Amino acid sequence: MGGSASQLPRDLLGEYQELTFLTKQEILLAHKRFSELLSKEERESILQKRVPKSKILTLPELRANPFRDRICRVFSTSEDGDGSMSFEDFLDMLSVFSDSATSEIKSHYAFRIFDFDDDGTLDRKDLEKLVNCLTGEGDETRLSESEMDQLIQNFLQDRAVMALRPF
Amino acid sequence: MTQPVSFTLHVPESRDGASPDLSLCDESAVHNSFQQLLQEQSMEEPELELEELELQELTLGGRENLAAGHTEAWEEPESRREHPDFSSATLLILANMPSRTIGRSRGAIISQFYNRTVKLRRRSSRPPLRQVSRSARPSLRQYDLELDSGHAEQKDTHSLLVKELQSLSSSQRSHMLQAMPVCLAEKRSLRQELGGHRSTLRKPDKTRRPLSCCGQLKHVFLTGFRSLWDGFLSLLHSLQPWHHSLKQISGRFGSSVLSYFLFLKTLLMFNIFLFLTLLIFVVATQAAYPPATKNSRLFTGLELLTGAGSFTQTLMYYGYYSNFTLNDACTPVSSSCQPGRGHLPYNMPLAYVFTIGVSFFITCILLVYSMSRSFGESYRVGSTSGDFAIKVFCAWDYKVIQRRSVRLQNENIRTQLKELLGEQQSKSRPMSLCRKLGRMVVLSLAWAVSVGTVVGCIVAVYYFAEHMLKVHRDSRDEESSEAQQEALLLALPVVVSLMNLVMPYLYNLLAAWEKQESPALEVYVAIFRNLILKMIVLGLLCYHWLSRKMGYSTEDNCWETSVGQELYRFVVMDFVFTLLDTFLGELLWRLILEKRLMRKQRPEFDIARNVLELIYGQTLTWLGVLFCPLLPAVQILKLVLLFYIKKTSLMKNCQSPSKLWRASHMSTVFITLLCFPSFLGAAIFLSYTIWAVKPSIACGPFRMQETIYESGKTWIQELEKSSPNITWFTWIHQHLVENTFFLFFVSGVLLAVIYLHIQVVKGHRRIICLLKEQIAHEGEDKVFLIQKLQCIYGKQETCP
């Protein structure tokens, strides 16, 4: 929090605080983490730069997340659709995942993250991909065909609306 | 030739929605699937229709609820995939369905929030509907947009939203902006538009006249204060104890093991609070005015274990504290007042009892508050039968960071899912009568064994305590050395701690043998048995101490000090045996597994058992606070050491738990257990001691009184006599505290509030059931209508 050149201006900080669910400390921490992802020259104009997806995924919390690609896709506002994130996208992501976000906004984004093919519905394919993300990357760790069928059958029959605690 | 345009929804929204910069980046990708299909299907159709179609796809969705859009999406859209031969017309209509476009286009989101703000405003001040249609005043017509859809056509919904947001109060507006699921850049532009119309700036507007001297000063003061406060908060954040360690633990082992360490931290906070209050009001003031008698004993190392010896006549125990007013100008003996002394007389007995009472009361409030908060977080109002949904969506522990642990978690989830599926299959096959009987026998046997062990332990502890008392009395009569006498005192704590060490392993074995239906149930049953044992043994010991108090007296007949010493011994022995348990159960077991049995598996960290040990230790502290005011300090030291020892042992010896725990649920259980058997028991013991037990005559702050509570009563009476102006205070005491009617009344109100909450929750459950049924029906209706639509278009297309 010293007098570095890439300090966030005060009114911008206040604005971010109003528009997101993050506190001032959290926004400053986010700023620090984000600037670590950029190279030294880029840090001057941190607010205009976009960080490519590969770099974002080096953050340890995201690296371990099974839905990391989808998260980057959903929160990114880049026109190319390559999943690169600006600082505001990063703040958006942290705001939705923070503890003080309403469950409504969390469920909205959770729905978008789980909707792998972006068609507005959570159908069979999405559920299959979801379960595969959870059980692991390799082929030997996945559920067999019959097990997957049975699981999805159960899933679609049971219309329980659940509270999204993990987010 | 079909006329799709006339049948499609007349979406009366803006035509300029086709501009590409209005949409989110992935909107084109989203509609790619549909666009491609439509392009394929309608290759012969004229360009115009295609453009119009694109326009209508990009336009704002309907006014349906976003939530309904979500839950509706659970339905399998049989339309496209299973019936690829749907006519193009049907597909066009399906593409325009609100549930396909909602949640994708930012405009849809904005329109949905626009409707919500309208509803909000309507809720606050709604004129009756009849008046609106007949009213000639144009301003009122804005209230009901559903009647007047033409109104929305004219303006962009975006600017309408801006206008609506302006009419809200600033807190409502900021709340609305925060909760909108659009990207931050969009929110900032909205805010700027709002800021342009109303001056909501915090800083003074530069166009206004310069501030007066006072205003400037105030501004400087405020900004200075704010920056100081920010600095303080960030310092507080960095000072959080063990932040890095906790992150390390959760990264490797997940949030279930983390919940143990967080619970330890919570207990530490409670003890620090208790210690600080007692330090300030009781210990420090007594230390400033030590009593006349000097400590005759020398310090040997044994005192640290037994708490007796040279520790007896120190600040540690009840017996040291004076029963008169410290620093009093008028001594009762000489009945002469010395001016100059006694600027701050301090009534020691009153301070003692009030400090302990008030700190217990505050601890109670804090416990109930944290319990209700964690209960609210973890309790789900909906049905409990959605196992698969829960497992799939909530199973992943996002705190885990390390690669190996992530892989382990993948495996765990896979195993869990397979187990669930297997269980479901076996459930569909009903159990034969023989197997049911077998299960009954196993269960009843297990319970019989556990109850038997509890009873056995109780009887053993009782007789052993009596025996030790006799032995101690004999040794005192025989004039054996002090050290030997005091070493004998250690026998009872050692036996009880040994029992507490060994029995939980037995209960774990029993639980494994029983094989309950679900692993969660297994854990709860083991916790329950363990808890019953510990609490009943503690209850027995309390009874033993209070009823045999004369037997324990030391040379100056101070039974409270000896009870305090007993509790000190119990706390220390508990610590020693916890260390032993960590050493044997984790380190030794790992070495055995690796070297002897050559297995790669490491022992697991048994969360339930460790948490119960913490709760037991805390109960001992709360029981002993009255007799040994420095016991919270001992407990603080113990907890700090325990944190580091457990963490080291965890990192070196253990592996992450194989059962997937719901950490939030477990934290609720832990804190409930802390509140109910543990704190409640201690409070009952304390109340009984204060109200009904006669304090010893020769020592302590309450020597001359019948009960400890009497000191409070005498004080009230003296107060009444000395200053008749505050009769209201004594009136309160007489009619509210002494009178039992008031207490009954308060309990009645509390019970009524609890009942109300239970009924509300039940009502919510019923509503959820009804809504689920409604969703199912809507889905069926939709399927029916799609089929009918297909019939119509299909017939038309086959016509030449």
Automatic annotation (TrEMBL), chain B:
InterPro entries: TMC (IPR038900), TMC_dom (IPR012496). Residues 1-21 are annotated as: Disordered. GO terms for biological process: intracellular zinc ion homeostasis; protein stabilization. This is Transmembrane channel-like protein. Belongs to the TMC family. It is found in: Membrane. GO terms for cellular component: endoplasmic reticulum; Golgi apparatus; nuclear membrane; plasma membrane. It comes from the Eukaryota. Keywords: Membrane, Transmembrane, Transmembrane helix. The chain crosses the membrane at residues 257-284, 350-371, 440-465, 486-507, 527-546, 567-592, 620-645, 666-691, 741-758. It is a multi-pass membrane protein. Residues 558-664 form the TMC domain. GO terms for molecular function: mechanosensitive monoatomic ion channel activity. Its main location: membrane. The keyword Glycosyltransferase does not apply. The keyword Membrane applies. Pfam families: TMC.
